Amino acid sequence: MPSDHPGRGRRGSAPDQSHSDQSEPRSGAPSTLPPSAAVVATLARLYPFFRPAIPRFVAGMLCALGASLAALAIPQVIRWAVDNPLLDSVGSADRSGVWLAVALVLGLGVLEAAFIALRRAFILIPGTRVEASMRLALFRHLQDLPVAFHDQWPGGQLLSRSMSDLGMLRRWLSFGMVMLVVNATTIAVGVGLMIYLGGWLGIAYLASAVPVMYFSYRFSSRFRRISRLSQDQAGDLATTVEESVHGIRVLKAFGRGREAYQNFSAQADRLRHTELHKARTLGAFLFAITAISEVMLGLCLIAGVWLALDGQITVGALAAFFTTAVVVSGPVEQLGHLVSMTLFAKTAVDRYFDVLDTPNVVDDPAEPQRPEHPRGEVVFDKVQFVYPDEPPPDHAWRDPDRPCEEPRREVLDGIDLTVRPGETMAIVGLTGSGKTTLISLVPRLFDVTGGSLRIDGVDVRDMTRHDLRELVSIAFEDATLFSATVRENVLLGAPEGQDGDADLDRALTVAQAQFTRGLPHGLETTIGEEGLSLSGGQRQRLALARAVAARPRVLVLDDPLSALDVATEEIVTAHLREELTDTTTIVVAHRPSTVALADRVAVLQDGVISAVGTHTELLATHEHYRFVISSLVDEDSGESRPVEVSS
Ligand SMILES: Nc1ncnc2c1ncn2[C@@H]1O[C@H](COP(=O)(O)OP(=O)(O)OP(=O)(O)O)[C@@H](O)[C@H]1O
């Protein structure tokens, strides 16, 4: 299957992250490369995103080069002016040569300024486009990645990668990369001119490049490590902010604000120390290269004056030599900042591709199948499931004190269960027995790790995810609503091209969510994070309405009525039984009243289905079922009304 976004080579091409050393940041580049080659190899991965912007970048770079050449031409004019019109005008009234030199310097200055303005105009827009397209690719990939990935990655890490890392990259593309090329060219041309003007003086100045290169080499490997650490710590900090904002009610209710603050403060302090360390490392490097360049210029000045007095160099050439040195010294001093920016950008690219390279293991098959006449029969055939490993220990954002290799455990260990078309099957089991895990396999939130799960004879892994979504819909106990209108939230999964209003009416009635019509703007009221807040029971009813509106063949419900009062639950239950006669329903029952929905009940025990039958049969014959039901009655806040089950 072709890669569906630029920058992604092939599915499953993630670099092996499990064996890398934390001190060496992970990247798409082979780790055997020397640091500078690794930087180039990593940044080269941007090419697919960068390609459309190349013409404008090249134009911008040419403008920047033009500006540098204009600046470098000024010393040549000065040299000519000092050695010719200026000397000629001593004791003469003719100043025309001097005025010409002034006009030339002015013209070159204006040209330099114009080139700089043009450079900005060319590069600003493509830089933002590259950033936007990379952000889009990341978002699409995040949407595509399976639930297991999102279980493992902290939200703050994803947030910081998609926002601050990509912002950093844009700044590097728009400024750092361009100026790196331009400054390197300016230094090369400038030093060439200095050799031309001052002979050995220029060569002596060039010799200062040797210690500069040595310091650059040492600096780059150290700075890469620190910048990776600081970006990862910033991501951790974002995760902490996200968690404390989400959990603000719990923190307030338990009076844990102080602890949360202390935890945040410790993390912020760690980041501050890393930033200080980074700034000191950069400062030492900048000091070294500036000092080397300045000391060398001072030595050149002494030698130059001596050579001029000896008549081996003209005063004009000496003036031009030092004016050129001033033009070159700017780029030399900037080089340190640009190198650090480049290393920062490399880290940002590494962190970006850490996510983008994560293969999607819940993927569409090469040759998809779909049931010809969907009836809604669901068959679990020796299904096994084990949750994926924790993230590898070298993930820099992981807490190094946390154990990494936790033993893998089969949550489901040979599930055999057939749910007949149109049947309602309740899944009952003790807390942690794997009920949610079991039903999550039906819409492929996770893939089975053994055995198979078939709908109407077709393995769910052989269907496209789109086809599967049309067949199966799900409502969770923890109802998530999006910042959108009631209508948009409910019709989120409704089939396209059907009468949305009819689906909406039916779904709201079944889920007893007519209260939405009384909201300030009725069904057009915005709810969710940015809109009106709803109660837990109201949210659950909307989530149920959303699942019903999708008109699925198979409806999967993870205790979706837990927050409803008994009377409302009874009405919803009755409507569901009435409306869903053709729909196969698998419902996780956490309270006896939910079992009332079911035609049959499956008991999940020790990773297998230990019994299937009607509630009455199981009560009479299955000891573990009696135990589970009695514990559910206890849990159910004293609500121990008799359970009515039709079979
Ligand atoms: N994302 C996950 N990653 C790793 N392990 C998980 C994950 N989700 C659940 N588990 C583990 O799998 C086991 C089964 O969890 P599951 O949520 O399926 O149980 P459950 O029967 O639905 O529980 P409950 O009745 O409390 O909702 C538990 O031991 C749990 O710790």
UniProtKB/TrEMBL annotation:
Keywords: ATP-binding, Cell membrane, Membrane, Nucleotide-binding, Transmembrane, Transmembrane helix, Transport
Name of a matching Pfam family: ABC_tran
Membrane topology: Multi-pass membrane protein
TM spans (from-to): 57-78, 98-118, 172-197, 203-220, 282-307
Domain ABC transporter: 397-631
Ranges where the record places region Disordered: 1-33
Gene3D superfamilies in alphabetical order: ABC transporter type 1, transmembrane domain, P-loop containing nucleotide triphosphate hydrolases
GO CC field: plasma membrane
Primary localization: membrane
The ABC transmembrane type-1 domain, residue ranges: 58-341
Family membership: Belongs to the ABC transporter superfamily. Lipid exporter (TC 3.A.1.106) family.
Name of this protein: ATP-binding cassette, subfamily B
Species per Swiss-Prot/TrEMBL record: Ruania alba
Lineage, top ranks: Bacteria, Bacillati, Actinomycetota, Actinomycetes, Micrococcales
